[in-house]
Every structure is written in C-alpha cells, then in structure tokens.
Design a protein that fits this description.
about 0% helix; 3-stranded antiparallel β-sheet; mainly beta
Length: about 55
C-alpha cells in the first residue's frame, strides 16, 4: 500500500490487482499509515445528459 497525501490518494494491493483510490476527504490520510487495514466502498457513477426531442 502507498499513501500520497499531496494527491489525496492511496494505493491498495488486493487479491487480484493493485488499484489507486482518491479520497474525498484528504484529512483522513493524516491518521493512515502503510500496513493499516482499510475498507474500500466502490461506487460506479454514470454521468451524462438527457436530450428530449
């Protein structure tokens, strides 16, 4: 796991891959250190626009 406080990201190695996550609240990183257990909730958000004709 890696922590980039300036960018507000953490890198987490899972069972199948390694992923980088951006935190909405960067202040949470101040208490996090490499090796700590974390829980990741992933949300898929679809954005776009609807055009009615």
């Amino acid at each position: 796991m890696g922590i980039d406080q300036a960018a507000g990201t953490v890198v987490i190695r899972g069972a199948r891959d390694t992923r980088t996550f951006e935190l909405e609240n960067k202040a949470l990183l101040s208490n996090l250190k490499v090796g700590d257990g974390v829980v990741v909730n992933i949300r898929d958000i679809i954005t776009g626009e609807i055009i009615v004709r």
